[in-house]
Amino acid sequence: MLTRLAGLLVRWRLPVLILALLGVAVAGAVGGGAAGALKGGGFEDPAAESIRAQAILRDTFSTDTPGLVFVVTARQGSVDDAAVAAFGRDLARRLAAEPGVDDVRSYWDLAAPSMRSTDSRRALLVARVTVAEDRADELVAALLARHGAPSPVATVLAGGGDVINQQVSGQVQDDLARSEAIALPITLVLLLVAFGSVIAGILPLLVGGFAIVGTLAVLFLLSRVTDVSIFSLNLTTALGLGLAIDYSLFIVSRFREELRGGATPADAVAATVRTAGRTVLFSAATAAVALAALLVFPTYFLRSFAYAGIAVILIAALGAVVVLPAILALLGRRIDWLATRRRARAATDGGLWHRLATAVMRRPALIAVTVVAALLVAGAPVLGLRLGLPDDRTAPPTLSSRQVGDILRSDFGSRDTSPLSVVATGIGDPSARQAEIDGYAARLSTVATVSRVDALTGTYVDGRRLAPPSPASARFGAADATWLSVVSTAEPYSDAGEALVRDVRGLPAPFPVPVQVAGAAAALVDSTASLLDRLPLALGLMALATFVLLFLMTGSVLIPLKALVMNTLSLGTVYGVLTWIFQDGHLSGVLGFTATGSLVFSMLIVLFCVLFGLSMDYEVFLLSRIKEEHDRGRDTVTAVARGLERTGWIVSTAAALIAIVFFAFATSQVSFIKMFGIGAGLAVVVDATVIRGLLVPAVMRLAGRANWWAPRPLRWVHNRLGLREASPELGGAR
Q1: Which is it for strands 599-600 and 387-388: parallel, antiparallel or unpaired?
Q2: What pLDDT does 308 receive?
Q3: Is the pLDDT of residue 732 over 70?
Q4: 2-40+167-382+526-721, what's its fold?
Q5: Average model confidence (pLDDT) for the chain?
Q6: Most-buried pick from 86, 180, 221, 669 (CB within 10 A)?
Q7: What values do phi and psi take at 351, rounded to 5?
Q8: Mind listing the pLDDT tens digit for each residue in 415-426?
Q9: Nearest by Cα to 657 from 619, 614, 690
Q10: Residues 158 and 70: beta-carbon distance below 8 Å
Q11: Which ranges of 196-351 would DSSP assign to H, the alpha helix?
Q12: Distance between CA atoms of 438 and 466, rounded to whole angstroms?
């Protein structure tokens, strides 16, 4: 089939390229609005108890966790001064008159001491945005422009969940543009060096542009029918450019090798598509399978990375196997025009990578034990890993939402802006249950770290009612439901916040139906539990699919198991380093982020799937060459040494280039994107050097003939279904 495809590409190269250009133009027109159509949330499980309870608060009680939090700071004196109080009340009145804004509450209207800072210079005003999520960013931006201006008596800072989403979404787009501006020029220079000519060097960028533009169109179309996270743009750029480099290196290298062997350009294209193209398609399949595992998770943040990852992988493979060969057929021997350096001699058995593999296989046990021990030591901090959700501290200090968060943590004793909400529905008329509500609220106020409980029956502190019900208390009752607001001193995304959720949920309620708990801390508990619940399924599907694909390629049982273990070891090492840096705060000053004491769980899962797929990408290219040598009758030592020599420069070059793309994301001002960039870049480097250069040769030497063993039933399966066509002789000449 690939041979027929190659023939068609040679014969119809101009129509193929014209169709590709038209496709890019259409995709560019469609995908140009992708950034504006994507969303900034998606970290919570929509089926979780906390999210269901939040929906009841909105639908039944017309209330919600305030998404807008304004900190009003007196320029002089106290927020109780008449001029400042008048300003605060006027701000509340103006906000309440805005369409799409509801439930406006201020310190001056409620006289709530917890909404005033400990030094009396600051006070809070909170409100709720009621428009749909896809319109929230636009409304929030307009509100900040109209109501964020300071006055002669006070200044105003805006924060809260809706402001965080709006500002971080804009920051992500700015960061993406900056990382591209850094990565693309460096990558282009290195491509010119790696490929040895200007013509060949720009081909990966063309394939990368093809993949990125196509994926943006896919994401935009998906955003019309489902929620898609704006953070998937980062993966689109990184993988689109990185895989384009990977695949183009293999395709162009094979094409050049065929030309040097005396083939005509048409025959060289045919051989390239038949061999290197086959390997590229197989590699794309393994990477896509790894990212498809993200689809089992319920949060649209993770599912969005699956959408973007699968799309960019498949489109990059299409560009490498269809569009790039058509370009090569058109260029022919002009592929080496505008040479940037003299061509190196063909790889030989005396080359660097051959010598390295031979040296490793002389002392395989010592090398394997040393490398594994070093990786385990580097990964040891992962044993103290704590999982969390992103909050305002993931944003840079320049954003007002981050500044508001810092002020709330330092100047306000209670978390009025992030309380727990205890919701009870189906209880009948709540006025008939006032005694039960009174007792329950009193017990809730005795839970550790709880500073106040507001309920239909009044306000409670330390087990007693501090204030009777007021007109504002009516908001806690509905036809057959009630809810209670539990204000705590605990940081929501902390161990204390999680303990509070467990204690509140564990306190018996006096109602005939179970209560449900909402709030930021509850969302953290529920989201973590949901992800942990689905994680074994995702990992199992990924491992099974990868094992099957590698078995069909190699006919071995041991080699796929080895690949899974080594990938896990490599990723565990990277997780340990990330825990040491981002959770524990080492290098926070150098890298410019605030450690929160936890790592964003969703991003760790994305990182695992992306890097697992890339690791398998390199594994496929190396194994394809080793297996080819073994199928020719070479012993294990010779096959491994020759396989590493033929692929070593390609894997190392591709890894260096894609690592630059990932490391460029370390310039992001959003800490978990910074973490993703550093983690991904580090993992690629470790995998291409330590794993492929040292551990793979050592382990395969120790296994010897067992590398190729499979039980008789599986050998029969491989003989019937296995991929036995010769793999490309990659990298033979550089």
Answers
A1: parallel
A2: 94
A3: no
A4: Multidrug efflux transporter AcrB transmembrane fold (1.20.1640)
A5: 88
A6: 669
A7: -70, 170
A8: 777 889 999 999
A9: 614
A10: yes
A11: 198-223, 232-260, 265-292, 300-318, 324-331
A12: 12
- CB 329 within 8 Å of CB 10: yes
Structure tokens at 609: 């799937």
Could you tell me where the beta strands, DSSP code E, fall in 283-419? 387-388
The amino acid sitting at 561 is: L
Confidence bin at 161 (pLDDT 50/70/90):
confident
Q: CA-CA distance, 615 to 609, in Å (whole number)?
A: 10
Confidence band for 340, pLDDT divided at 50, 70 and 90? low
Q: Is 454 helix (H, G, I), strand (E, B) or coil?
A: strand
Is 731 a residue whose pLDDT tops 50?
no
Cβ neighbours for 186, distance < 8 A, ≥ 6 positions apart:
660
Cα–chain center distance at 702: 37
Number of C-beta neighbours around residue 374 at 10 A: 13
- pTM recorded for the entire structure: 0.84
By residue count, the chain amounts to: 734
Tokens (6 digits) for 611: 């890097």
Grade residue 262 by pLDDT with cuts at 50, 70 and 90: confident
CATH 1.20.1640.10 intervals, the chain: 2-40+167-382+526-721
Averaged pLDDT for residues 92-121: 88
pLDDT at 345: 46
Q: Quick check: 244 and 319 in contact, CB under 8 A?
A: yes
d(CA 115, CA 122): 9
Task: Please calculate the CA angle 386-387-388 and round it to the nearest 5 degrees.
Answer: 125
Looking at mean pLDDT, say which of 249-253, 643-647, 694-698 comes out highest. Answer: 694-698
Q: How many CB atoms lie within 10 A of CB 171?
A: 21
**What residue spans in the chain does CATH classification 3.30.70 cover?**
67-159
CATH 3.30.70 fits domain 67-159: yes
Is the per-residue pLDDT at 4 higher than 90? no
Whether 313 and 218 have beta carbons less than 8 Å apart is answered as: no
Rg of the chain (C-alpha set): 30
481-488 β-sheet, strand order: 464-467, 458-461, 450-455, 481-488, 420-425, 516-518
pLDDT at 349: 58
CB atoms within 10 A of CB 283: 27
CB atoms within 10 A of CB 426: 10
pLDDT of amino acid 294: 92
Sign of the CA dihedral running 667, 671, 673, 674: positive
**Rounded to an integer, what distance in angstroms lies between the CA atom of residue 732 and that of residue 514?**
68
Residue 109 to residue 95: CA distance in whole angstroms: 14
How far apart are alpha carbons 392 and 409 in whole angstroms?
11
536 Cβ partners below 8 Å, 6+ apart? Answer: none
Closest-CA residue to 283 (of 316, 306, 241): 316
Closest CA to 598 of 447, 497, 680: 497
Q: How many CB atoms lie within 10 A of CB 93?
A: 12
Please check the confidence at residue 212 and state whether its pLDDT lies above 80.
yes
What DSSP character marks residue 385? -
Residue at 729: amino acid letter: E
